[in-house]
Design brief:
The protein is an alpha+beta fold. The chain is built from three helices and eight strands, in the order H-H-E-E-E-E-E-E-H-E-E. Helix content is 49%, strand content 21%. A four-stranded antiparallel sheet has the order 1-2-6-4, with no helix packed on it. The protein is rod-shaped and about 140 Å long. Keywords: Membrane, Transmembrane, Transmembrane helix.
Length: 183
């Protein structure tokens, strides 16, 4: 085997020119080994980065899928709420037009329950009022549109505290709080 001695550039040229084919083959083999090692290190580094990127992409895909499922669930819930609201609105439109009010009557302590709607009010009832003298409170009566039902409510300090009466009827989903008129 030939040894290369680096004494001067001229000497190096002479030595390279004097190398045998076996030396060149060995040198080429070592160069190939060095290139292979560099390629392996580079591939390992890129492989790890590719693995990390693939893991991140997989996690991002899982998050996107979960977000999609959440959005579908929220959309389904919103549709159910809309359907419920539309159903309630349809129920309200299905209720007959019963509009009740309380007015002062013609005589002293009398009051008139008036139906100003277009549909009769059936089962009209005002519960008894503790500590207030009343007469002829409606109890299951029918008040036709435009009609009045007269009852007596003796004015007292308790009456002024009330301020309103709860009137029930079959056509209303809950009692109507009607203000008491005072002169």
């Amino acid at each position: 085997m030939t040894k290369l001695v680096l004494s001067s550039p001229m000497n190096l040229c002479r030595q390279v020119g004097a190398m045998t084919p076996e030396t060149w083959s060995a040198l080429a083999a070592w160069a190939a080994v060095i290139v292979a090692i560099c390629a392996a290190v580079w591939a390992a580094a890129n492989g790890k980065r590719a693995h990390n990127e693939a893991s991140a992409a997989r996690a991002s895909g899982d998050e996107a899928q979960q977000a999609n499922l959440d959005a579908q669930r929220a959309s389904r819930d919103a549709q159910e709420q809309i359907a419920t609201s539309v159903g309630k609105l349809a129920d309200l439109h299905a209720l007959p037009d019963v509009t009740l009010s309380i007015e002062r009557g013609q005589l002293g302590n009398t009051y008139d329950l008036v139906n100003t709607g277009t549909h009769p009010a059936t089962g009209v009832k005002i519960d008894t009022i503790p500590d207030v003298h009343t007469e002829r409170l409606p109890d299951g009566v029918m008040v036709e549109p435009g009609e009045r039902y007269t009852f007596v409510l003796v004015r007292s300090p308790r009456t002024f505290q009330l301020g309103h009466l709860a009137v029930k009827c079959n056509e209303l989903p809950r009692p109507a709080l009607l203000p008491l008129p005072f002169r």
